[in-house]
Structure formats: structure tokens, C-alpha cells
């Protein structure tokens, strides 16, 4: 299986984390020549990452790729829990991170790296939105070892990249420790760093992020 993308992308990271949990082998690289070449647009007409090529199957959109991996490799560990209630809970935590933690964190990141104009009012709102979402996440997330408790699930595939961005950008906008006062999130973050599916990805991404921010 080939993943088009980079581990720094939180959307790509979801797929990497799922593959690591499942023990699926993969190669990963940015599309040759960039995201908007005719060759890449033929695979993903939005010209975004991730796109996955698995034999003759080509899929994009992280939210589509994750359940595909469970269905395609039924003998491997799953990321979506079997019981509807557990799957719903995992999906809920994932969605909270996707829409409400990661989105404002990415808005802030775009301002930092110059992909969005510097705008103090927009940054203040994004920071407040991110904090409010972290408070809500704190009410749903397990303190560990994984986001829903014992097992690594789709929730972790979403929470980890969202928190990598939230903890990286918060301090740049005056929020020294975005996890402070959110004890469940804080305990989760300390625990998941040691998880075999997450450890290497988190170390690698934090280094890429640090280098990226240092180079500005
Ligand atoms: N909804 C998509 C979002 C993918 C996405 O926005 N990827 C970003 C990278 S972080 C991208 O490719 N941006 C380039 C662009 O929009 O031109 C998913 O979940 O896969």
C-alpha cells in the first residue's frame, strides 16, 4: 500500500496511526511534482493528501480510508470497535477532535507559517474555540492508555494529530500549556506517547514540526 502524503499532515497522520496499529506495511511519500499535477489529480481530484493506493484501489479522504482499512484487512486489529455503542463513542471523540480541536489549531498554524494572513482577532477566536473544544474533549476522553480506554481505536487516530497541533501552536499564542486544567486529556497525552502504535509517529512529527517552526 502506498500513502501519498507527509506525517506532518494531521489527515495523513490518521492513516499512518491506523496502519501502525494494524501492523500494515506501507510506503509514504509526497506526490511527485506536487499536489496539483495532472497525474496526482487523476488519483485525487481535490489535489489533497492523503490518498492511498492499495493494489488497484485508490481512495482519498481520511474518513473514508480508515474504515476501508478495517474492512479490507479483517484479520488485522480493528480501529473501529465492534459494538455500536463503543464505535459511536470512538467516533464521537474523533469528530470532536476533527471539527473542534484540530480546525482552530490548524487556523493558528496557518497564520504561524504564513499560509494565512496574520490576524489578531481571528487568532483570538481560534484560540478560544480550541480551548472550549479541549474542555469538551476532557469530558469524553479516557485518561488512558487510549482515548476510549484500553484499546487503540479510530479515536486515537484523530486525537493524536489534533493534540500534536494544539500543543504546538498554543504556546505561540500565549497558551503555554493547552492541556493544563484538562486532567483527562493531560493524562491521556502522557500515556499515549508510550503506546507502540503512536510512539514513533509522535516523536517523528514533533521533530518535523519543531524544525518547521524553527525555520520560520
Ligand atoms: N478532508 C480531507 C482533508 C485533507 C487535507 O485538507 N489535506 C491537506 C494537508 S494537511 C492538503 O492536502 N492541503 C493542500 C490543499 O488543499 O491544496 C481528509 O480528511 O483527508
Compose a concise summary of this entry:
By secondary structure, the chain is α+β, with helices and mostly antiparallel strands. It is built from eight helices and four strands. The chain has helices at residues 10-22, 38-43, 62-72, 84-113, 120-140, 154-169, 183-192, 199-214; strands at 2-4, 27-29, 51-54, 57-60.
Description:
With 216 residues, the protein is an alpha+beta fold. The chain has two domains: 2-72, Glutaredoxin, CATH 3.40.30.10; 84-214, Glutathione S-transferase Yfyf (Class Pi), Chain A, domain 2. 57% of the residues lie in helices and 6% in strands. A four-stranded mixed β-sheet has the order 2-1-3-4, with helices on one face. Helix 4 runs antiparallel to helix 5 (120-140) and helix 4 (84-113) packs parallel to helix 6 (154-169). The protein is globular, with a radius of gyration of 17 Å. It binds glutathione (GSH). Glutathione is lined by residues 9, 11, 35, 47-50, 61-63. Glutathione binds next to helix 3.
Question: What attributes does this structure have?
Answer:
Glutaredoxin; four-stranded mixed β-sheet; Glutathione S-transferase Yfyf (Class Pi), Chain A, domain 2; binds glutathione; 8 helices; 4 strands; alpha+beta; 216 residues; single chain
> What is the CATH topology of the largest domain?
Glutathione S-transferase Yfyf (Class Pi), Chain A, domain 2
Strand content: 5-15%
**Elements, N to C (H/E):** EHEHEEHHHHHH
What is the alpha-carbon Rg in Å? 17 Å
What's the CATH class of the largest domain, please? Mainly Alpha
Strand order of the largest sheet: 2-1-3-4
Number of domains: 2
Second CATH tier, the architecture of the largest domain: Up-down Bundle
* SS field, number of helical segments: 8
Q: Strand pairing plus helix content: what structural class?
A: alpha+beta
Largest sheet: 4 strands, mixed
Report how far the terminal alpha carbons are from each other. Answer: 34 Å
Nearest-integer average pLDDT: 97
Give the fraction of residues assigned to helices.
Answer: 55-70%
Low-confidence stretches: none
Strand tally, please?
Answer: 4
Bound small molecules, deduplicated = glutathione
Structural shape = globular
Amino acid at each position: 500500500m502506498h500513502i501519498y502524503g507527509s506525517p506532518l499532515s494531521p489527515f495523513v497522520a490518521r492513516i499512518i496511526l491506523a496502519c501502525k496499529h494494524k501492523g500494515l506495511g506501507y510506503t509514504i511519500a509526497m506526490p511527485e511534482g506536487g499536489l496539483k499535477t495532472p497525474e496526482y489529480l487523476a488519483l485525487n481530484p481535490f489535489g489533497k493528501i492523503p490518498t492511498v493506493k492499495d493494489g488497484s484501489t485508490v481512495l482519498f479522504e481520511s474518513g473514508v480510508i480508515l474504515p476501508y482499512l478495517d474492512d479490507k484487512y479483517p484479520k488485522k486489529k480493528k480501529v473501529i470497535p465492534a459494538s455500536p455503542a463503543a464505535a459511536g463513542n470512538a467516533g464521537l471523540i474523533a469528530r470532536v477532535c476533527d471539527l473542534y480541536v484540530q480546525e482552530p489549531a490548524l487556523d493558528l498554524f496557518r497564520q504561524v507559517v504564513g499560509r494565512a494572513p496574520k490576524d489578531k482577532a481571528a487568532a483570538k477566536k481560534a484560540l478560544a474555540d480550541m480551548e472550549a473544544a479541549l474542555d469538551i474533549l476532557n469530558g469524553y476522553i479516557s485518561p488512558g492508555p487510549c482515548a476510549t480506554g484500553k484499546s487503540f481505536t479510530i479515536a486515537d487516530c484523530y486525537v493524536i494529530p489534533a493534540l500534536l497541533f494544539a500543543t504546538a501552536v498554543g504556546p505561540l499564542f500565549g497558551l503555554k500549556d493547552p492541556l493544563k486544567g484538562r486532567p483527562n486529556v493531560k493524562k491521556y497525552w502522557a500515556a499515549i506517547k508510550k503506546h507502540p502504535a503512536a510512539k514513533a509517529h509522535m516523536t517523528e512529527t514533533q521533530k518535523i514540526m519543531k524544525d518547521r517552526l524553527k525555520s520560520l
